[in-house]
Amino acid sequence: MASPKPTRKTVADLKTNILNPALTSTYVCDFTFPGAVAKWANNITGIGNGITFDNVGNVSIACREASLPGTSLATHEMLNDFTGIRERHAYRRQYDDTASFTFYVDVNYDSIFLFENWINFIVNQDNNDKLTKNSNYSYTVNFPDEYKSEIHIRKFERDYAGRNLEYTFFDAYPLSINTMPLSYDASQVLQCTVNYCFSRYIINAPDGYTKPPSAPSPVSPTPEKSSKILDAQPFEFESSNITDEYYNNFGDNEQNATNSADFFDGSNTGPFGESVA
Question: What stretch(es) of the chain map to CATH 2.30.110?
Fold first, then answer.
């Protein structure tokens, strides 16, 4: 098969393909907390403010950093089928081990409490159980079906139009929470990074694709409006006593009215008979 021939590109092609890039700062993350985890957090066994639609929505907005997932193919090498040629055949799709999300922490510490409650539920750590403070404390982990859930990342653009990207993570749950340093140095916004474990993800283009609005075309004046502009009468000044007196003294010669040399004829009098020094 022959290689494609070079084609001519116009400025409009550059604007459409190169000068219209996707931005990294327009996205939204949605975290679905399992029902058992929400019941645990809203019970006396949980810590913090429980799990409500409000604080889950606030945490979704507070997600300052996320990463679109990566994937790769596991291959098997074939060395002896053809002389001097190494072949690699794919046999498995592999996914990243974790997905990391960084959140701004508000004064209610929702970003910390929500995920601490989730991890507490996984390991059955009941805060009202006095045995948790003993040195020989032990626990039994809950079943995976009770603490695994889904995560959604939607990538869009600033005009909220056009095609979107939606990533759905399956069997996701918080695997770890990174340390959050505190110090007496200059104050900064406290941030919480949560690393999620998941089994796989899918990507799709959500329904509701809408074409971006086109720029409005300039409106040219109609013939009727332009004729009205041409037929407009010039502005006329009203007559005044000063101008009447001036024309009575100097006649109707317009050239005398615009010639400043006629105003002063050397008689030390102005055009209206006033004395001029």
Answer: 20-77+86-204
